[in-house]
Design goal:
The structure holds 2 protein chains of 2 kinds. By secondary structure, chain A is mainly β. In chain A, 7% of the residues lie in helices and 51% in strands. Chain A has 2 domains: 153 residues, Copper amine oxidase-like, N-terminal domain (Copper Amine Oxidase, Chain A, domain 1, 2-Layer Sandwich); 309 residues, Methanol Dehydrogenase, Chain A, CATH 2.140.10. Chain A contains 3 helices and 43 strands. In chain A, strands 1, 2, 3, 4, 10, 11, 12 and 13 form an 8-stranded mixed sheet that branches. Chain A has a 5-stranded antiparallel sheet with strand order 5-6-7-8-9, covered by helices on one side. By secondary structure, chain B is of the alpha/beta class. In chain B, strand 6, helix 6 and strand 7 form a beta-alpha-beta unit. The relative contact order of chain B is 0.20. Classes of the chains: A mainly beta, B alpha/beta. Chains A and B meet through strand 17, strand 28, strand 32, strand 36 and strand 37 of A and helix 1, helix 2, strand 1, helix 3 and strand 2 of B. Chain A: InterPro entries: 6-blade_b-propeller_TolB-like, Cu_amine_oxidase-like_N, Mao_N_sf.
Chain lengths: 475, 286
């Protein structure tokens, strides 16, 4: 059984319990269904009104109970959904507001048609006192809507289903996320009610990095081109002509520059002016495999990761016997570069063997990253903080198993894993944490809007968090 | 309302789309742990390191340590038990010219690697045929004027024995022809990076490299038999100098190693990061 149908049954039970009886249609109602033609005989019919919420607005809907099933006024439902009802050849034809769905039904008949395809009600529509009553879930679904909860929350548009990742907010507060389970990744824009549109089918745009004000998102293509996606219009424009390999894009706080790792061996750090497209090299020290570059708000310091490789050696003949590999120094380390001082040299800030992820800088110039012990001696992935002068590395949140951390609008938002579920915290510079959201779902990604609203990817679904409550925008 | 405008189109599009699982989606409490060691092809090293970064975001407690020393050292390291994955530019589970099969190893395809002939910017030639390349690398052609260029000695730069780039270049660009060591105007280098540096800094030089490394203005790729070395020409079958890149494992991979290889092979990685590193997805060649 489809989940939505199960939900529909649960909803019927829930609203039945809270319904207010508003009248009795009579001891024995024998009704001719007008031009619809069918007859229906229902004994001891009681009509009631139930409160539903459609697209966030409360509506009152007349109901009756027939064959132990609650039926809902078709007219009330159509009005609530903005659908249109017509009579045609003995059938009632209902079209949704966008005329994408057409439902054809007949009073007294379990058969109905959705866009030409025949399906069946559990209980046939009834006409009582001039009102046609229908099952809720099949009609809502047939008109492209969705029952969101057993508390009577409906949406006039069904949520999009699929597997999503890489979410970010546009300037208007809509969530843009990559739908990854199609033939090609697509960017989908979702509003707070879960209404959606395909925003971009440019598969390179999946994983685009949004600017601080949310107005544009940057991405690269396989030719090394750098592009800006307007998050309102969806238009894409190329930024500059440079075609070198670019990875790890990161916006400056003022949105005027994009920093990135440059080169086929990821050996350089550079930035491009958003206004002019001019690329400026910041560091080319021949140290390969840089990533995760971030620049402090004042633009005076860059921090970045270096993936240190192992060292393989053979004799001159390259014999198998002589092959040795030293992995003792292999791993990720954090470096900083003073951008305010000409010809300054990078400084290595860490040297431990733990995995390091999600490098960010705080407003006060300190750097943070997630540290994970692959040996499992330290069970939690820990949020580490590096002092602004680079001399001290300490735990910021030792008691959380940190999945990721995001700095947005000066706030540090941390996603932590639980044995069963996830929690989101705001962590102050002192390490004091405030819980913002808790769920029993496994959350894998988190993004924060410029106004502080949070969106998550929980088990592949996009979830919007407002006031500590999560709303699934996709299913 | 704008949100609704594209709905019908999307409904149709959705119906046409094939569904597939997303590889590597982690649970919040990720249990995958362990260390994965990767050695071998320097051509595949950037791909391995990029995949490692992304994989560790899904599985933060898996450590991935990588090194590059030429393709043959990949399956050699796996055979010796000093690496879990041997990155190799050929299928080392079968015999290839110059190298016997590594018995018991499984070849896991991870990328398509195009290779290109490159010349220093001083060289005026922009196309070379298989026969001309055979002549140059066998030592029979020693001056650029013999292949349409200036009257200058050709400096041959080649990868060391055991390089997957060399194996594939010999087989596909030289038509199986030999690379003959010479007393002068000849140099062997140990990695793709060294090849790039050598050709970029040596006037009148010729070499070969995987397409990933072609950038900058100190050297250029030349056409082969009139066909440019581009991903498009590899995919459409016009350009022949390419190979699959493989992750060799001792038997079928298991645990974290299996999960990592599956991530590299996933559509998510193949269609995004792998392409942006100028490799070609394995699915493009089907």
């Amino acid at each position: 059984m489809k989940n939505s149908k199960m939900l529909g049954m649960a909803l019927a039970t829930a609203v039945l319990a809270s319904a207010t009886a508003v009248g009795t249609a009579g001891a024995a109602v024998n009704t001719k269904a007008g031009n619809a033609g069918a007859k229906s005989t229902v004994a001891q019919i009681k009509t009631s009104n139930v409160k539903l919420t459609v697209d966030g607005s409360p509506v009152s809907v007349k109901t009756v109970t027939a064959e132990k099933t609650m039926l809902y006024s078709l007219r009330d439902l159509a009005n609530a959904l903005g659908a249109d009802i017509k009579l045609s050849g003995g059938n009632l034809i209902i079209q949704d507001a966008l005329q994408l769905y057409e439902l054809s039904l007949k009073v007294g008949s379990k058969d109905y048609r959705v866009n030409g395809e025949t399906v069946q009600f559990g209980t046939a529509p009834q006409q009582i006192g001039g009102t046609v009553y229908v099952e809720l879930s099949p009609v809502i679904e047939a008109l492209g809507g969705e029952i969101l909860s057993a508390k009577g929350e409906l949406s006039s548009v069904g949520r999009l289903s699929g597997q999503f990742d890489l979410p970010f907010f546009d300037a208007a507060g809509n969530v843009i996320a990559a739908k990854e389970d199609g033939e090609v990744p697509q960017l989908i824009k979702l509003d707070s009610a879960g209404r959606y549109e395909v925003f971009s089918s440019n598969q390179n745009a999946a994983g685009a990095v949004v600017s601080p004000d949310g107005s544009q998102a940057a991405f690269t293509d396989e030719n090394g081109g750098l592009y800006l996606l307007n998050t309102v219009s969806g238009l894409v424009k190329q930024l500059g002509k440079d075609t070198s390999v670019k990875t790890d894009l990161s916006w400056s706080q003022d949105g005027k520059s994009l920093y990135f790792i440059q080169g086929d061996k990821q050996e350089k750090i550079a930035y491009i002016s958003v206004d002019t497209g001019k690329v400026t090299e910041l560091l080319a020290d021949k140290v390969e495999n840089k990533s995760g570059v971030r620049v402090t708000e004042d633009g005076k310091k860059a921090i970045y990761f270096v993936q240190v490789t192992g060292k393989a050696e053979t004799d001159k003949e390259g014999t198998e016997e002589s092959l040795k590999i030293d992995y003792s120094k292999a791993g990720t380390q954090v470096f900083s570069l003073d951008l305010a001082t000409k010809d300054s040299k990078p400084v290595q800030l860490t040297s431990d063997a733990y995995n390091k992820l999600y490098l960010s800088v705080l407003a006060d110039g300190r750097a943070i990253y997630v540290s994970a012990d692959p040996d499992g001696v330290i069970p939690n992935s820990v949020l580490k903080v590096i002092s602004a002068d680079g001399k001290n590395v300490a735990d910021l949140t030792g008691d959380l198993d940190v999945v990721s951390a995001v700095v947005s609008g000066g706030k540090l938002i941390v996603l932590a894993a639980l044995e069963n579920g996830s929690k989101v915290y705001e962590v102050a510079s002192s390490g004091v944490k405030t819980e913002l959201y808790s769920t029993d779902k496994d959350v894998t990604e988190l993004t924060v809007s410029k106004t502080g609203t949070i969106a998550l990817i929980a088990e592949g679904k996009v979830v919007l968090v407002q006031g500590g409550k999560g709303t699934e925008l996709t299913k | 309302m704008k949100f609704f405008k594209k709905l019908s189109l999307f409904t149709v599009a959705s119906a046409l789309l094939l569904s597939s699982a997303i590889a590597g989606t982690a649970g919040a409490k990720d249990d995958l742990k362990g260390k994965i060691t990767v050695n071998g092809s320097t051509a595949l090293l950037p791909l391995t390191l990029q995949a490692a970064k992304e994989f560790q975001k899904l599985h933060p407690k898996v450590k991935i340590a990588a090194s590059g020393k030429g393709s043959v050292t990949g399956p050699q390291a796996v055979k010796k038990g000093i690496a879990d994955i041997g990155a190799c530019d050929w299928d080392a589970s079968i015999d290839v010219p110059g190298f016997k099969a590594f018995d018991g190893q499984v070849a896991n395809k991870v990328a398509v690697i195009p290779f290109a002939t490159i010349v220093n910017k001083s060289v005026k030639v922009d196309n070379l045929t298989t026969e001309q390349l055979k002549g140059i690398y066998s030592g029979k052609i020693t001056n650029w004027k013999d292949v349409g260029g200036e009257d200058e000695d050709i400096v041959v730069i080649t990868r060391s024995f055991g390089s997957g780039t060399r194996v594939n270049y010999q087989a596909k660009a030289l038509g199986g022809g030999d690379i003959v060591k010479k007393e002068k105007n000849y140099k062997e280098v140990g990695s793709s990076g060294d090849m790039k540096t050598a050709v970029a800094t040596t006037p009148n030089s010729i070499g070969y490299i995987d397409l990933t490394y072609i950038s900058g203005s100190d050297f250029k790729a030349v056409k082969h038999d009139g066909v440019a070395a581009t991903t498009e020409n590899v995919i459409n079958g016009k350009y022949k100098i390419w190979s699959y890149g493989y992750y060799m494992t001792k038997g079928e991979p298991t645990g974290a190693t299996k999960a990592f290889i599956e991530y590299v092979q996933s559509k998510k990685f193949q269609e995004s990061s792998l392409k942006k590193l100028k490799f070609i997805p394995i699915s493009a060649m089907k």
